[in-house]
Amino acid sequence: MALREALLSDSSAGWLLTETRTGIVPSVDSLFLDADLRPLRWTSLLGASRLEVNFAVDSLGGVIHGPVGTSAASSEAPPDLVLSGAMLELVVELLPLSQGWADSVSVLSADLSGADVSTAELAVIGDAPTGPDPTGHPAWLVALRAESRQLLLWVDKATGIAMRTQQTLPTHTGTMLELRAREKAEAIPPR
Questions:
Q1: Do 75 and 116 touch, CB atoms closer than 8 A?
Q2: What are the two backbone dihedrals, phi and then psi, of residue 126, each rounded to the nearest 5 degrees?
Q3: Which of 6, 101, 144, 185 could hold 151 in an S-S bridge, CB 3.0 to 4.6 Å?
Q4: Contact 184/133 with Cβ under 8 angstroms?
């Protein structure tokens, strides 16, 4: 995941948030954000599928291409809209997390049947004092709860960085997806 300053299409300053994953099904997300982190354009590649979405003040419109077809997507776009895991991790770093903290957000789901925005709750649900890594970083356990899904984040209390996420999956694809921060590789000794 990388966040860098970007020149937007109207020549104003903004941000480009990118996330790249490798593996059996590689993916690349590119999200252009206004200076206030409001989404402007999102492109996503997931295997053979592609998503292209543009955002207006209160709406979104785009196209979803998949192996079995193409469909148009349009929906409302509330100001608190979270689009991807990378965007959620960015937002969580900026929040004043503490015991009992909670707020509402909107989340976007998109597939070949279209796009859907639903409300969700983002809340600190506990302390995870040992953290997910062997160094034992104190962490907040933060939940994003939407109608049919839940995502958990282990957020380092000192840095605000998400060290681990765990997400329930639709039953036809599996049960759970867990992502952890990569350990720094030790230097390979010379031969």
A1: yes
A2: 170, 180
A3: 144
A4: no
